[in-house]
Amino acid sequence: NQSLYLSYLIYDCDEPLVSTLSQASFSSSSELSSSHGAGFARLNRRDGAGGWSPLVSNKYQWLQIDLGERMETTAVATQGGYGSSNWVTSYLLMFSDSGRNWKQYRQEDSIWGFSGNANADSVVYYRLQPSIKARFLRFIPLEWNPRGRIGMRIEVFGCAYRSEVVDLDGKSSLLYRFDQNSLSPVKDVISLKFKTMQSDGILLHREGQNGDHITLELRRGRLFLLINSGEAKPPSTHTLINLTLGSLLDDQHWHSVLIQHVGKQVNFTVDEHRHRFHAQGEFGYLDLDHEISFGGIPAPGKSVSFPHKNFHGCLENLYYNGVDIIDLAKRQKPEIIAMGNVSFSCSQSQSVPVTFLSPRSYLALPGFSGEDELSASFQFRTWNKAGLLLFSELQLVSGGLLLFLNDGKLKLNLYQPGRLPSDITAGVVGLNDGQWHSISLSARRNHLSMVVDGQVASAASSLGPEQLYSGGTYYFGGCPDNSFGSKCKNPLDGFQGCMRLISISNRIVDLISVQQGSLGNFSDLQIDSCGITDRCLPNYCEHGGECSQSWNTFHCNCANTGYTGATCHNCKLNALASSSLCSDFLVPLPFPWMCAYMSMYWNHNGSDLTRVRNTNPENPYAGFFEYVASMEQLQATINLAEHCEQELTYYCKKSRLVNKQDGSPLSWWVGRTNETQTYWGGSLPDPQKCTCGLEGNCIDSQYYCNCDADRNEWTNDTGFLSYKEHLPVRKIVVTDTGRPHSEAAYKLGPLLCRGDSGTATRQRGFLGCIRSLQLNGMSLDLEERAKVTPGVEPGCRGHCSSYGKLCQNGGKCREKLSGFSCDCTFSAYTGPFCSKEISAYFGSGSSLIYNFQENYSLSKNSSSHAASFHGDMKLSREMIKFSFRTTRAPSLLLYVSSFYKEYLSVIIAKNGSLQIRYKLNRYQEPDVINFDFKNMADGQLHHVEINREEGVVFVEIDENAKRQVHLSSGTEFSAIRSLVLGRILEHGDLDQETALAGAQGFLGCLSAVQLSHVAPLKAALQPRHPARITVSGQVTESSCVAQAGTDATSRERTHSFADHSGTRNDREPLANAIRSDSAVIGGLIAVVIFILLCIAAIAIRIYQQKRLYKRNEAKRSENVDSAEAVLKSELNIQSAVNENQKEYFF
C-alpha cells in the first residue's frame, strides 16, 4: 500500500492546460459577436464579453480546444459567461486525435453527460475516470439557462502523455527475437493500444514447432485471443482457448489490450472489459519459439492453419514482458526486424462519419445539374432491421428511387405516384449486423446496377420504357416533415445508425460544409462522429441466452436454456421435480434446486481437526475428503452458483509449506480437476501464497505464508478458498513434520454455495454510491476499504449533488446520514443556507482589527484557520467582498497591512469618491483605482467586490460599475499582518489620503466583510474558537441589508437617509389598508370601520415620524453625531425585524 501511495504522489496529473493556450487554439461552431469568441472562454477570465456564446443557442453548437499534442486529461471545469445570464446546465464532452471523427466520452459503457452550471460565475469541476488521451476536446451544450443563452468558460486539467506509435499499412509487421534465457517459459505479459478502420487483422502471433501458438486477431471488429497447446486435431477443449472481447473496435479510436498468461491462468482485458480463464488439463507449458510478430505473420517458413490478414492501423506503447518494442524498432536494434513499410507516426483518416440519431433524422443533399445519370455511393452500419437509406427524386418522370432495409435485407424500389412500387431487387441478407457495409448505386436511362460490399448485388439491364435521369435532391436516412414540401417518400421508419464516405455523381460530399450550414439540409444528426454502441457488450443474457439488439434496446432469446425472463434469469419452476430444473444441471440432484437463490452447503468426512506428525517427502501424509454428493452433482451446483467457498484451516509448528532452497512445495491440496494447488485459504490462485502474503502482514515479511517462517511455535495460514474451478477440495498432502518438534494440523469446512451465477457473471455491478453502511450495528469504514479496492473510489456524491446549490455565499455542503447541512465556516454569512449577512454598526472612533499573525517569526507555527497567510508566503491573489452604508467622508472602509510596509486600503475620499489603493512595493507610490461616478457617502447601501490575480485587479461596484486595472507597484503581497475595519490605531508609512481616512475611521454599517476565507465581522460577533480579534469603541451587531426578495433598486430605496417618512415600515401598512379596503368594498361594515381606524393610527405615526425627521435634519448640520443617531435608530428597527424571522428547509 505504501508503494502505491508513493507512486500516486509521484504521478501528478492535474496541471491546468487551457490557461497557457494561444487564441488560435480555440474554435467554435459560431460566435455571437467578436467579443463572444471562443478565445474568451478561459476559466475565471473576463476578457471580451466574459466568455464564449454562439450566434444561435441550439444543440448543434460546440466549443473546441486544441491542446497542441496528445495530452492526458483528468478533469474538466466550467463556468458561465461573466456577469451574464448565459450558462450551460448540461453538456457532452467529445475527444479526437485529429479534429475529425469525434468520440463521446463514456463511463461504464454509457454516454456520460455532465451537469453544468447554475449561475454565471461558480465553477463546476468533474474528475474524469477513466482519463482522456487526446489532442482535441469539444464541449457540446445540451441545455442552458432558459432565460439566457449558451455561455461557457472552461478549463481542463491533466499532463503530458508519453506515446510511442508505429503505423502499419496492412502489408508490414514487426518481428521481435529475444534471448531464450531472459524469459519465463510459463509467463507472458503483453500490453498495447491500437486503432484502425479495418475490421480484420492479426495484431500478434507467436508459435512453436509442435502446433503450439498464441494469436491475437481482430475479426469483424472484435478481438479473438487464440491459445493452442499440442497437435490435437481437432483440438479438444483442454488444449484450445478461444476468448472474445470487444466490439466495434474498427472505429479509428484507441483501444487498450492487456494479456497476462501465467501457467494455466489467462487474463484477457480489452478497454474496461475483462475475461479471466483458468485452463484445465495439460496446459501449463507452451512449446513456443523465441520470437513474436506484431501486425502479421511475416517470418518465412511459418505455416498457420487458419486464413489471416495483416493489421492495417496504428499500434501504441507496445510492451512484451516489459520490453518497449516500438522503441527498439525506432532505434533499429538488431532484435527487431521491420517487414514492409513501417513508420513511427500515426496517419489520421480524414473520413467524416455522420450519426442518424432518431427515426426523424435525415440528410438532404442537392444533385448536380446537367447529369444524365443517377449515381450515389456510401457506407453504413446499423443494428436496426428496417430503415430508409436513400431516396432520390427523378427528373423527366415523377417519382423516385427508394433504397431501404427491410428485415435486414436490402431492397430497391422504383416509386411513381398512382402505381404500385416495383421491387427491383431483394438485395443481400443480414446487413444489420453492426458492421460497415458499402453500397454503390447507379441508374442511367433504363439501366440500373447496385454493388454491395464489392459484390454485384443486382443489375437490371432494362427497366422497360422508363427513362431514369439525375435526381434533384438526394435524401439519406429519412424524409423531412411534409410541411417542407418535399417529394421524399418513406414506407418505413427512418434509418438509425452511421454513414460515411457519401458520394454523389462520383464526388465526395463535404459533410463539414453541411455541418456549417453551407451545403444541403439536415435534422437530428451528429456530424463528424459515429455514435453506434453495442448493447450486447457486456452480454446481459444469462445462462446461454442469445442477445440481439436494435439501436435503442436489446433482446434475449431464452429458447433451449431452461430459463425465462427479460435476461433469461428465472428458472422454469417445478416444485415437485427432484432433478434438474434448469439446463445448467446435467445430472440429477438430491434436492429440488429453487433457482439457486438460497445457500447450500455440502459436508464431508474431514470436518474435525486432524493432526499430522512424522512425515517427510519420501513418506508423505495424504488426507482424502468424501462428500455426501457425487462429484457430478457438486460440479453442477458449483457451475450454477454465484459464489462457492471452503474454509481451509492449516496450523503449523516448524512445518513449512514451501522449501525455501529450491521453491518446491512441501504441502499442497488437490481439487476436483486433480491438479496440485499450492496457494492457501484467502489467497488468489497464485502459486505458494497465503492470505498474509496478499495483505502484507506475515509474521516474517520475507515469506508469503506464516508457516514458511518455520518457527518453533504454533501459527496458522487460514482462510476461504473461493476459486470455483478448483473446488471442492478432495485431498491434502503434508510432508514436513519429520523434524524434532515439528507438527501440523488441518480442518476443512463444508462446501458452501449461494446465489445464481448468471447474476454474478453477466449482470452489471452496482454503479453509484454507498455510505453510512452498518453491519451488526457497527459502522464500517468504507473509504479506507475503497482506497485498496480496484474500481472503487472513496467519497460519494449524495444529497449535495442535488441540493448543494442551496448553500450560498461560499458555504460548503456537507453530507449527513439523512440529509445535508451547509458549513458556513469560511463564509461571511450564517444561517441554514449561509444566506444571512453578518453586519455591524460602527460608532465614531471604533475599530476592529483581525490579526493574521502576531509577528513574523510566530507565523510559521500558527495553527488558526488563517494560518495559510504565512509570514514567509507571498500572496499573489485575494478576493475581497463587503457592503457598507455611511454619510461620512472621508472614511476608511477596509485596510490590510503587512510587515513589509505594504498595504491595501479602501477609502471614501473627501469628495465622496471610492478609492482602492494598492501599495505592493514599499519604495513606490500606491496604485489608485478611483470611482467618482457618484457620492458614495450618500447613506445608501453599496456593494464592493475586488479580485486580484497578481498584477491584474478586477473591481465591481454595485453590480454595474466594473473596471480592470493593471498594477505597477507590484504583483505580490508579502507577509500579511492584519485587517482593520474602522479607525487605524497605529499609523505607519501611509499615503496622505489613507492616513486622513484612517484617522477619521468609519461611521455607519459594514456587512458581509470577507477577505478570501477570512470573515472578520463573523469572527468578532459570532466567535466559535479563540480568534485574534481586537475591538475598540462601539461595534455592535446590526443589519444594514434589505429583506429577502427585494431587488437592488428597492434595497437602496429602503435604506436611503433622504426620506424617513417613506421607509418600508411606514409604506407597507398603508398599501395593505388600501388593498384591503378595495377587497371588502360593499362587504362587511365592521371590517371597513376597523380599517379606517388602522389608517388613522398609521397617519398619526407618519406625522410623528416626519416631525422627528425634521428635527434630526435640523440638528444634522450642527453635529455629525446626529447622523450616527439616525443611522443607529434605523438599524435597530431593522435588527428587531430580522430577529423575528427564521429560516426553515423542508
TrEMBL record:
Keywords: Cell adhesion, Disulfide bond, EGF-like domain, Glycoprotein, Membrane, Repeat, Signal, Transmembrane, Transmembrane helix. GO terms for cellular component: membrane. Residues 13-159 form the F5/8 type C domain. InterPro entries: ConA-like_dom_sf (IPR013320), EGF (IPR000742), FA58C (IPR000421), Galactose-bd-like_sf (IPR008979), Laminin_G (IPR001791), Neurexin-related_CASP (IPR050372). The gene is CNTNAP4. Residues 1042-1069 are annotated as: Disordered. It comes from Canis lupus dingo (dingo). The lineage of its organism: Eukaryota, Metazoa, Chordata, Craniata, Vertebrata. GO terms for biological process: cell adhesion. Pfam families: EGF, F5_F8_type_C, Laminin_G_2. The chain crosses the membrane at residues 1079-1103. This is Contactin associated protein family member 4.
